Amino acid sequence: MLKIRDLKVSYGGISALKGIDLDVEQGKIVTxxxxxxAGKSTTLKSIMGLVATDSGSIIYKDExxxxxxxxxxxxxxxxxxxxxxxVFPQLTVHENLKxxxxxxxxxxxxxxxxxxxxxxxxxxxxxxxxxxxxxSGGEQQMLAVGRALTARPELIMMDExxxxxxxxxxxxxxxIIEKISETGVTILLxxxxxxxxxxxxxxxxxxxxxxxxxxxxxxxxxxxxxIIEAYLGKSRKKK
Length: 239
Hints:
By secondary structure, the chain is α/β, with parallel strands linked by helices. The protein has ten helices and ten strands. A hairpin with a 2-residue loop joins strand 4 and strand 5.
């Protein structure tokens, strides 16, 4: 579904992406892990058209979208759940969900998708007329995911969906990610919780200072001793 080839991005002369290759198969969950500043968010922003690329290509469903506008990419079925949730605080939950569908004109379909979001996140239905800015962090994250879903995406990208959330809420978020995947939506996930991300994904990539240094099945990466020590906080030395 998505193929990135030799993608390079720089900010003020500093290389953020140094020629990465990445593949996302349709219907799969793919996760990208790495330390802060490795280039993970830049990768998602590049796919979304939020940052300019220096060179390389982004191929989505056999179409080169590297130079398309962000709006055109959304219209082709790509959405992003940004880091930090970025909900509209002065709009209600329901209004936020409708904002996710701003490119659509099928009102009946939009309402059906909002109903589905409420089934995924019952708490949002209970708070549908509450201002988004008054929700808890976990509820705002649910709303950010729900807002992306009302665009009816084929590929949804999530940037650190569990950041700053309590462990119980994190588990709920990952359950929802798996439910979304079961509907056929393809997911590209950046996540600081490497353990849970690699357990739930089909394929994973490890990024270091703008380069992809390891890729493969999520379960296999999770067994890699270097990954265990670097990202899971466990020593390779047997005690």
